[in-house]
Design goal:
elongated; about 150 residues; Serine Threonine Protein Phosphatase 5, Tetratricopeptide repeat; mainly alpha
Length: about 150
């Protein structure tokens, strides 16, 4: 009888279900208007901000303002990803601004772009030339900076 009680107790003990652990809530999608704000940069993962911002398709001038806000608030990864995404896609205004971040002639030190990098600047000028082979500034700067 004692063994039966122990066996029954052990069975209940081993077969009890663990308490349900609530799953963490995924970040809420960012509405288009809030995708590229300083507030979203502060609370959302970097990649989520970049994806939402690119999906929102701001114009070049607006994107440069967003990048300026990101740089000023040390969201360097966001600034660099936004630059690179649009520059690779052929936005020549963004590509030129990105090249200038690294070009010793135009470089303005910041936390995000502390030192000029001639090789990186040359890469972005070459990218510009792949979309606009007659771009005089990109040609001249590329010739001066190419490794």
């Amino acid at each position: 009888l004692v063994l039966a009680a122990l066996a029954l107790g052990a069975w209940f003990w081993l077969n009890k279900t663990p308490p349900a652990v609530p799953e963490p809530m995924p970040p809420q999608p960012v509405p288009g208007d809030a995708a590229c704000t300083l507030e979203s940069m502060a609370v959302l993962p970097e990649l989520s901000v970049v994806q939402a911002c690119i999906k929102n398709s701001p114009g070049s001038a607006e994107l440069l303002e967003i990048i300026t806000v990101a740089k000023a608030n040390n969201h360097c990864g966001i600034a660099q990803r936004l630059y690179a995404n649009r520059a690779q896609a052929g936005d020549l205004q963004i590509a030129t601004a990105y090249a200038h971040e690294y070009d010793p002639k135009f470089h303005q030190a910041s936390k995000c772009f502390a030192e000029p990098d001639p090789a990186t600047a040359a890469y972005w000028y070459e990218t510009i030339l792949s979309h606009d082979p007659e771009n005089a500034e990109a040609k001249a700067r590329f010739e001066e900076l190419k490794p």
